[in-house]
Write a structure and sequence with these properties.
404 residues; 20% strand; alpha/beta; Aldehyde Dehydrogenase, Chain A, domain 1; five-stranded parallel β-sheet; globular; Aldehyde Dehydrogenase, Chain A, domain 2; 2 domains
């Protein structure tokens, strides 16, 4: 444990120190070069991922789907890095005003510093999170599940760090917990001096425990612990459109924004033939309103829950009170009903005749995300991107004459 703590502290301290060297232009160049390196190292990335997948026989189908990087997903890593490089940097100046006493006040967005990130065995998240943090001029210390550590190590050591070095930036701006031990996550949330914020992604129970431990150390967290999309087929839903929405909501197994809870006004609206064709079962899991991929049932099969609800208000009550609050959609041709649903839903994203699969930073904002924050308090909520990763600072200029 002491050796692991020392390693994590070294990575965190180095990432913290590297922040002073980060500039918008240099980071953009590094991200663009990282995109090129993904292409050049694609064989090494694929080989590492194949070894990780081969060694992850205990994972269920959803977790394996998140772990696996096929050719298209590796290409997607390069595309996202290239796109992120080209996005405009975070605007640092926010508001300005002058007080009656002549003081000139400006609010600024300044970097947080180094930020930790603990995420499930999903290697693309390493690139997403590190890219967002660098784009906002923050350092990163990554810690992933043991199943993905081989792939993530290649992404850090053969893509991200060389890209930083090639553009004159400290490679240590991206750190890595180089151990599969779960203790690494606990250490990550215990270093408030160098890692004041940790992004948490993973199962609800694990993330909740880490968030509680972080609070005890004075470390703030942005938690993406739960997902699961809701789709309500209103009585005025177009049947063909409704079936298309169900299909579009179930194109991936291991993602947080897939359809989890299907609410229907009438029993016959449940598209049983379509679900059978897609290989999706109807069942009542232990937590029907939460992310299927986090279902603790070891025998689970690809499934959704379907329920008949008596009214739009009943659908809203279930979406608001019995789910994670990630996203909910309504299928209807009744505009008044749609508006009432959109106004009544309190989660992070509400959809009308569109699938919750679009609850995603890249899909909605054009920037990859660090995660989706479902907290019900002020702060960055929904998909969190580089535009959200900053601290507010007041800058005040006087002429020496002002007194309270």
């Amino acid at each position: 444990m002491s050796g692991l703590r020392a390693q994590v502290e070294r990575e965190a301290t180095a990432a913290h120190a590297a922040v002073a060297s980060l500039t918008d232009d240099a980071v953009a160049a590094a991200l663009a070069h990282a995109a090129v390196l993904v292409h050049e190292r694609r064989d090494a990335i694929a080989a590492a991922n194949a070894r990780d997948v081969a060694g992850a026989s205990a994972l269920d189908a959803g977790a394996l789907d998140r772990l696996r990087l096929d050719e298209a997903r590796i290409e997607g890593l390069a595309e996202q890095l290239a796109t992120l490089a080209e996005l405009p940097p975070l605007e640092r100046a926010d508001e300005r005003w002058t007080l009656e006493n002549g003081l000139e006040v400006e609010t600024r967005r300044i970097p947080i510093g180094a930020v930790g990130a603990n995420f499930e065995a999903r290697p693309n998240v390493a690139v997403d999170v590190a890219g967002q943090l660098l784009k906002s001029l923050n350092g990163a210390v990554l810690r992933t599940g043991g199943a993905a550590l081989g792939t993530v190590t290649v992404l850090v050591d053969e893509v991200l760090r060389p890209a930083l070095a090639a553009t004159g930036l400290p490679p240590a701006a991206v750190g890595l917990v180089r151990s599969p031990e779960r203790a690494g996550a606990r250490i990550l949330v215990s270093l408030p001096r160098v890692l004041p914020l940790v992004i948490l992604r993973g199962s609800g129970e694990t993330t909740a425990a880490l968030a509680a431990e972080a609070a005890g150390h004075g470390v703030r967290t942005l938690a993406h612990a739960e997902g699961g999309g809701v789709l309500y087929l209103h009585d005025a839903a177009d049947p063909a459109k409704a079936e298309a929405l169900v299909a579009a909501s179930l194109d991936r197994l291991g993602v947080c924004n897939r359809l989890n809870l299907l609410l229907v006004a009438r029993e016959e609206q449940i598209p049983r033939a379509l679900l059978e064709q897609l290989g999706i079962a109807l069942r009542e899991p232990p937590r029907p309103g939460h992310e299927w991929a986090n279902d603790p049932d070891p025998e689970k099969v690809a499934s959704i829950t379907a329920r008949v609800v008596g009214s739009l208000d009943d659908a809203l009550a279930l979406a608001n009170e019995a789910t994670s609050g990630l996203a909910a959609a309504i299928a209807t041709e009744d505009e008044a009903a749609a508006r009432r649903f959109l106004d009544g839903y309190r989660g992070t994203a509400a959809f009308w005749n569109a699938p919750t699969r679009f609850t995603d930073g890249f899909a909605l904002t054009g920037a990859p995300e660090t995660g989706i924050n479902v907290d019900r308090v002020p702060g960055p909520r929904g998909p969190v991107t580089y535009r959200d990763l900053w601290l507010r600072q007041f800058r005040v200029v006087g002429d020496g004459s002002q007194r309270r």
